[in-house]
Specification:
By secondary structure, this protein is an alpha+beta fold. It contains 2 helices and 7 strands, in the order ββββαβββα.
Length: about 140
């Protein structure tokens, strides 16, 4: 059995909204909704990965606060260990707008209408059971 790829994912919340993007064409699960994040580098914690990936993908500086859940998911492109962290924006951040059009702020209540990959099911259940959470 092959080792799972470690993935750090940030559930970035601000004022009752969460940052959600759409996976680009040409990548696995293209067109599906996603939270910012990505594969961990060698010897990188999922927490550090989220900070790096969010900066690269959105231009925003985030502060991981609470580990929400880690799930293991088998996709066609491999086995992923998905670590979801509740994150806030850096306190000194002046602009809340992501630097790219592929991410936008959506209300927590709208998450159930988006098409996320199945590896997100457990964290979505947590988020939708507690609207406005995690805070």
């Amino acid at each position: 059995m092959s080792a799972a790829v470690q993935v750090g994912i940030g559930v970035i919340e601000s004022d009752g909204h969460v940052l959600v993007g759409v996976r680009p064409p040409g990548v696995p699960l293209a067109g599906m909704a996603e939270f910012p994040g990505g594969k961990c580098l060698a010897d990188e914690t999922t927490r550090a990965c989220i900070v790096r990936e969010c900066r690269e993908e959105t231009g925003l500086m985030v502060v991981p606060r609470t580990h929400l859940v880690t799930t293991r998911q088998q996709y066609d492109h491999g086995i992923m260990a998905l670590s979801f962290w509740q994150c806030g924006l850096s306190p000194d951040l002046k602009d809340l707008a992501p630097a790219t059009n592929s991410f936008s702020w959506v209300p927590f209540a709208s998450l159930n209408s988006l098409d996320f990959p199945s590896g997100n099911d457990e964290v979505l259940k947590l988020l939708l059971d507690f609207p406005g959470s995690p805070s």
